[in-house]
Write a structure and sequence with these properties.
Layout lengths: L1 H4 L4 H14 L17 H8 L13 E11 L3 E8 L3 E2 L3 E4 L2 E4 L16 E2 L4 E4 L10 E3 L18 E7 L5 H14 L4 E4 L6 E5 L2 H15 L3 E3 L3 E2 L2 E4 L4 E6 L2 E2 L4 E2 L2 E8 L5 E5 L5 H14 L8 E3 L1 E9 L8 H17 L3 E5 L1 E9 L3 H10 L3 E9 L2 E9 L6 H8 L5 E7 L6 E2 L1
Parallel strand pairs: 14-20, 19-21
Antiparallel strand pairs: 1-2, 1-8, 2-7, 3-6, 4-5, 9-11, 9-12, 9-13, 10-11, 14-22, 15-18, 16-17, 18-21, 22-27, 23-25, 23-26, 24-25
Helix pairs in contact: 4-5, 6-7, 8-9
């Protein structure tokens, strides 16, 4: 409409529309140039100076956010903080309910650190007094209640690799290196197998594990070996809707009994595992039931954890004689009930990888054949630009291991792939 009223101002309207469209994410320009050769840099900066910065408002109690942790060669463990408010040196701050003073904060710089009496809003500062904090934690003016969701297991850790020290004397050094690695990256975790002593390192993806292994080598050198990457698997119980059982266990010829627990096992639409009590029981009895349920779900027919099952406790009848073994016997009774359900069979499931591929048209047939080998489901094939094909689809995550390298080889280095791994009740694969 503005153009029809003032056709001579077409260039002005187009430029204004470009700016406004970019700001509200309705129009996304693509800039071509070379930072190395300086091509297009002046034009890009000229455009950016017209882009209005979006105002961001933070909660009044938040002072800043920890967005990075690093083991510095000179300063040791340091945390990077983005300040949401102007902060004075030495002022008091809280990490949830834990108080400390910002005595050592300073700004990092190329020519050294910068120490100020006051750091303005938006500054990035570093501190050595936050070794116990996690990436994503906030600093507060006043004590804040801990968000319990931060304490849960990160379900995105679906990839693992087994590590072993080359010599037994390297084991302690390896574990220290892993502790340092996990301090920097909370997306990782590791556990030690009791039976074999092997160390399993868990991460969020193939590249994540690869980068973490290289980082670990910087900490401990070539003191360990590692196996092939694997993807986590779980089990779902087949053919179960609602199953009612009376659970009981006894020892010494029936002298010591657990009591009778009337329960209903239910399949959940999501992958949650939970215990619901429709009857009031003591805290000790509830703990025994929950412990037995969780232990029973720990390992299914294929040795993987079981998902998608709920235990509903309807009633509990105490034994005539209350023995000291009652709680343990009740736990065993619940475990036996779970194992009884497994007789109907289970299926194995795992994460799914959503992928997008860009490859020259001349290699389209080879790429499609390659993803079909990975048991992929292709959802879209289109032309991205001249002589470049776009492929979108999904496949079991464990089938896509190493696919990025395979794609580079089959397209002579001209193909690219982006992958996102997900696992929930709507995004999973049968394996």
């Amino acid at each position: 409409e503005k153009y029809l009223e003032n056709p001579e101002k077409l260039e002005e309207f187009a430029y204004k529309g470009l700016i406004e469209g970019f700001y509200i994410s309705k129009f996304i320009p693509v800039f071509a140039g070379s930072a190395k050769q300086g091509l297009g840099i002046r034009e890009f900066l000229s455009f950016l100076k017209y882009v209005k910065c979006k105002e961001v408002f933070y909660a009044e109690n938040k002072l800043g956010c920890i967005f990075k942790k690093q083991i510095h060669p000179e300063y040791g463990k340091i945390s990077y903080i983005r300040l949401y408010k102007t902060v004075k040196k030495g002022s008091e701050a809280f990490l949830y309910k834990r108080a400390f003073f910002l005595e050592d904060i300073r700004m990092p710089g190329l020519s050294g650190e910068v120490w100020l009496d006051e750091y303005p809003e938006g500054s990035v500062v570093i501190s050595q007094n936050l070794s116990h904090a996690r990436i994503g934690d906030y600093l507060y003016k006043k004590p804040e209640t801990l968000n319990k969701e931060l304490l849960g297991e990160d379900e995105s850790r679906q990839f693992a690799v087994v590590l072993e020290p080359l010599r037994e004397e390297y084991r302690e050094k390896l574990l220290e290196g892993l502790d340092s690695l996990l301090w920097e990256d909370h997306g990782l975790r590791y556990k030690i197998e009791d039976a074999t002593g092997q160390v399993e390192l868990w991460g969020c993806g193939e590249l994540h594990i690869e980068v973490s292994l290289n980082r670990l080598s910087q900490f401990v050198g070539k003191t360990f070996s590692y196996g092939n990457l694997k993807v986590v698997r779980y089990e779902l119980i087949e053919n179960i809707a609602k199953t009612s059982l009376n659970l009981e266990h006894s020892i010494y010829g029936g002298r010591d009994k657990s009591g009778v627990l009337e329960v209903i096992f239910e399949k959940t639409l999501d992958f949650n595992r939970s215990v619901i009590f429709d009857v009031n029981l003591s805290e000790e009895l509830c703990s025994s039931v929950e412990a037995g349920f969780n232990e029973g779900l720990f390992s299914g027919l294929y040795g993987h954890g079981i998902l998608g099952l709920r235990l509903r406790v309807i009633s509990y009848t105490e034994p005539e004689i209350l023995s000291e073994h009652r709680l343990s016997l009740l736990k065993i009774a619940v475990i036996s009930g779970v194992k009884q359900l497994l007789k109907s069979g289970t299926v194995q499931v795992g994460p799914i990888t959503l992928f997008e591929i860009l490859a020259p048209e001349e290699f389209l047939g080879q790429v499609l054949a390659g993803v079909q080998i990975c048991s992929a489901k292709i959802t879209e094939v289109d032309s991205a630009s001249d002589h470049v094909s776009y492929i979108k689809g999904e496949a079991p995550a464990e089938k896509m291991l190493g696919f990025a390298s395979i794609l580079r080889n089959m397209t002579k280095g001209k193909g690219t792939v982006s992958m996102v791994t997900r696992f929930d009740s709507k995004n999973f694969s049968y394996v």
